[in-house]
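[Discussion] Sanity-checking designs against the backbone

I'm trying to build intuition for which residues belong where. Below is a structure token string of 232 positions. I'd appreciate it if someone posts a full sequence so I can compare it with mine line by line.
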């Protein structure tokens, strides 16, 4: 179950991240490194250190560029030994990324609709679909492109699973255990409910990283994940 929990290291510095990682110890096996730490806190080097120490790393960088740049970038991340990498879920980008990651242990994840966005935000961005409709379209395109999975709200996990089948990973941020504040998230769900809906991995940040006792917070989430959920 611990391999399904991904702790988001949304921190300013490598020192802060290492202190949290040391504190969490064996309670957490999987970490996400995003913009904040990657660009401002030596996140690439930290990720490589974690991989060398036997941890799993998810680089959440949402790549989008011309084909050659995506191909070279994804291949470079594959060589680090990272477990997951995000790209924007545009069809052409997903096809190129899938090819670049082929034969490696890297799971390329297409980002569908951010969990901080609702239907009004999607409409403002110029899409002629609601959030669920856009997620469904991206899921079909991801399946056809052959990438390893998708990032989406847990509210869309069940729908996505019917589209992509059992093989693709569904990684869900916006996870809020009982009693947690929503923060800037809009489409959220609890840990157990998200897994039951079809998610394979849960990304949790502030409910753990900002908790008075991060270890206890992580263990409580793992316990909530385990309660009543049958592992595949």
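Best answer:
Here's mine. Compare freely.
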């Amino acid at each position: 179950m611990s391999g399904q929990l991904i702790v988001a290291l949304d921190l300013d510095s490598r020192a802060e991240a290492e202190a949290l990682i040391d504190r969490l110890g064996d309670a957490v096996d999987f970490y996400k490194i995003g913009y904040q730490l990657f660009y401002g806190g030596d996140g690439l080097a930290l990720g490589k250190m974690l991989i060398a120490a036997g941890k799993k790393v998810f680089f959440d960088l949402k790549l989008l560029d011309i084909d050659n740049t995506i191909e070279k970038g994804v291949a470079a991340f594959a060589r680090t030994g990272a477990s997951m990498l995000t790209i924007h879920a545009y069809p052409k980008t997903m096809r190129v990324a899938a090819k670049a990651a082929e034969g490696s242990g890297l799971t390329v994840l297409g980002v569908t609709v951010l969990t901080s966005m609702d239907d009004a935000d999607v409409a403002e961005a110029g899409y002629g679909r609601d959030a669920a409709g856009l997620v469904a379209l991206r899921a079909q395109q991801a399946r056809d492109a052959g990438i390893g999975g998708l990032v989406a709200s847990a509210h869309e996990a069940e729908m996505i699973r019917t589209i992509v089948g059992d093989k693709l990973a569904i990684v869900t941020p916006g996870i809020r255990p009982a009693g947690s504040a929503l923060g800037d998230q809009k489409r959220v769900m609890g840990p157990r409910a998200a897994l039951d809906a079809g998610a394979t991995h849960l990304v949790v940040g502030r409910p753990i990283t900002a908790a008075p006792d991060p270890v206890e917070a992580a263990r409580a989430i793992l316990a909530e994940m385990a309660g009543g959920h049958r592992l595949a």
